[in-house]
């Protein structure tokens, strides 16, 4: 695998640990419960697929499978935290904590909203 951020498991564990500590300090709630609520709220319930042949394409609304919903929610949370910390004085752990808190509260400031 030659993708971005490969082979950095220890760094990821440290970032998530710091983010959970920040979440506990800011909200006073269990950080794992905040994570679960963020995943539930940021996952899409409906998606669109391409239906058609021979060049004519129509978009059809379809339900999202539970596994894809969780995967897409995690992708949205990670992308939002990464983009928020890019060229910013805030650390990635602080941005991840903010993203999880905003997604759990279903605010417009969340990337997945």
How would you describe the overall organization of this protein?
Helix content is 58%, strand content 11%. It is mainly α and 113 residues long. The longest helix is centred in the C-terminal third of the chain and has 20 residues, at 66-85. It has a two-stranded antiparallel sheet with strand order 1-2. It has helices at residues 9-27, 31-42, 66-85, 92-105; strands at 46-51, 58-63. The protein has four helices and two strands; from the N terminus they run ααββαα. A hairpin with a 6-residue loop joins strand 1 and strand 2. It holds the Pfam family Ribosomal_S7.
Fill in the keyword field for this structure:
mainly alpha; Ribosomal Protein S7; 113 residues; 58% helix
Count of helix runs: 4
Low-confidence stretches: none
Relative strand content: 5-15%
From the 3D structure, determine the CATH topology. Ribosomal Protein S7
Radius of gyration: 17 Å
Reported CATH architecture: Orthogonal Bundle
Spatially, the strands of the biggest sheet line up as 1-2
Any idea what the shape is? globular
Which class best fits the helix and strand makeup? mainly alpha
| pLDDT averaged residue by residue | 89
Tell me, what is the CATH class?
A: Mainly Alpha
Number of domains: 1
- What percent of the residues sit in helical stretches (DSSP H or I)? 55-70%
> What's the count of strands?
2
CATH homology superfamily name? Ribosomal protein S7/S5
The span between the termini is 31 Å
Q: How would you characterize the largest beta sheet?
A: 2 strands, antiparallel
Keywords: Ribonucleoprotein, Ribosomal protein
Pfam families: Ribosomal_S7
Family: Belongs to the universal ribosomal protein uS7 family.
Domain Small ribosomal subunit protein uS7: 6-106
């Amino acid at each position: 695998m030659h993708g971005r951020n490969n082979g950095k498991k220890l760094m990821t564990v440290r970032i998530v640990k710091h983010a959970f500590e920040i979440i506990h300090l800011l909200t006073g709630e269990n950080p794992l419960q905040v994570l679960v609520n963020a995943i539930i709220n940021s996952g899409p319930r409906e998606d669109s697929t391409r239906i058609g042949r021979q060049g004519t394409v129509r978009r059809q609304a379809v339900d999202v499978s539970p596994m894809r919903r969780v995967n897409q929610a995690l992708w949205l949370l990670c992308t939002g935290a990464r983009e928020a910390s890019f060229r910013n004085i805030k650390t990635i752990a602080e941005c991840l904590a903010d993203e999880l808190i905003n997604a759990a509260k279903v605010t417009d400031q969340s990337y997945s909203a």
